[in-house]
Amino acid sequence: MTLGLAIWTLSLLMALDSGTPPEVTSTLSAAQVRIGEPFVVSLDVVHDPALRCEVRPQSGSADFEVLSQERLREDVGATSTTHFKLTLSAFKLGKLTVPAFPIEATDGTATMVLPSQPLPISVASSLPPDAGTEGAKLLDVRPPEQVLVRTYRLLWILLGLAALAAALVWYRRFRKRDRPVIAAPPATIAVRTLEALDALAKQDLPRQARFQEYYFRLSEVLRSYLGERFGFDALESTTPELLAHLTSRSTPGLAVKDLSSFATLSDFVRYAKSQPSAGDAKDHLDLAYRIVRETTPVTPGTPTNNAGS
Questions:
Q1: pLDDT value at residue 5
Q2: What does residue 73 show for φ and ψ, rounded to 5 degrees?
Q3: Cα angle 222, 276, 220; round to 5
Q4: How far apart are CA 102 and CA 114, in angstroms?
């Protein structure tokens, strides 16, 4: 096979000895993306017009998935350029390498393979950076920003408000009824996790057949809650390590058997690309709500959150 490939390559190069040797340029649309977020790999091949270039089909890997592929050819004078745009998504955290995509160049009689350049990319979590220690939090909208408006009406309003505030301060001092301002307590891990589950439910990813992204996010939210609730790093634990941590601790109210079934199926969906049913996805979301409710200590006067029931 090595001799045959050498003969094909030599034949092709001899056929193109008067033309420009093919050149491949590889670029990424972004150096850093979030897990499951699409990004684009651009391959530009400058070659002799007698050649036709195609990207060799890839079997894929557990780290990346090719979502779509586009091809565009431009012929200018004695040179042609074929542009490929491959849309991918990553399903593993950390610093990864986008694999090379071999390109087949043929003139109809001989074929040669042009390797593209592997490209480094950084894949970040869809949760905030401090989610491993403080639990699941939603990425909120930016706070309001002040906008300067050139109008005297706003100035008069501000002066009126200032005068009203001064009057209120004088009245409070006169009546001697100053009371300390009690700041609202920070949201608990249960409240933050239930809000994260509500946001995931509203996106309705299973209806869009985006099961892999759905189970990645559901697993992150639930693991972050379990890690903060029972005191260990759940986000960086494998499924066997996660279950070992939980079974070695006192976890009142936790349905370990149901959690184990969910974790196993989640791994198949996330890494083996198994296709669950929409009913399974709904049942696992309900399980996450139930785990949060049943493992949250109940204090007198605490309202019951019925989300997800």
A1: 42
A2: -115, 140
A3: 15
A4: 6
Rg of the chain taking only CA atoms, in angstroms: 29
Q: Is 308 helix (H, G, I), strand (E, B) or coil?
A: coil
Which pair of structure tokens corresponds to residue 277?
A: 């049913």
C-beta neighbour count of 265 within 10 angstroms: 16
To which residue do tokens 């071999």 refer?
A: 102
Band (148; pLDDT cuts 50, 70, 90): low
Residue 73, both tokens: 């050819």
Tell me the three state secondary structure of residue 95: strand
Q: Which of 91, 1, 79 is nearest to 37 (CA)?
A: 91
* pLDDT over threshold 80, residue 149: no
Report CA torsion sign: 155, 156, 159, 165.
negative
Which tokens is 129 given? 């950076």
How far is Cα 169 from Cα 174, in angstroms, rounded to an integer? 9
Please check the confidence at residue 80 and state whether its pLDDT lies above 80. Answer: yes
